[in-house]
Amino acid sequence: MAQIQAIMNSEELSELNRNAAELNARLRNEYQKIPQQAMGRDEFLKLLITQLANQDPTAPIEDKEFIAQMAQFSSLEQMTNMASDFARLARMIQGTEAASSLGRSVEIMDGDSLIQGPVQAVTREETPKVLVQGYYYNWDQVTKVYYEGDHNL
Prior knowledge:
This protein is an alpha+beta fold. 52% of the residues lie in helices and 19% in strands. The chain has helices at 2-7, 10-32, 41-53, 63-100, and strands at residues 105-110, 113-122, 129-132, 135-138, 142-146. α3 runs antiparallel to α4. The model has no long low-confidence stretch (mean pLDDT 80).
């Protein structure tokens, strides 16, 4: 780190840290899109249809077993919807928090640097960003938000 600091000024180092944080966030998002080992809704439905299509006509699937499988499918669908709704709610809360910081002073950890200043703008992205001192920072980097009269900035 000392060698990098000797080559780059603090502004360049701050920009590098921001770019690295944005890249890491994109990689985390891509990692979350990788298929999981657990059976999903589509796989479950395909398996059920295949089972029904290939059942022995002399011994068809029993009603109780079929109802149990449909109940499992329904539960899976509801859990998937709830997870999606919770993720959307979390993004909305994060966006609301970021928007409420508009005009207030904040502290931002950018690598080893502490940036302080008023929030001049807020973006409405999946991960909200705040504009402080001419640079956009991810909302996750904000460590403190000061209300008027609460700080010595």
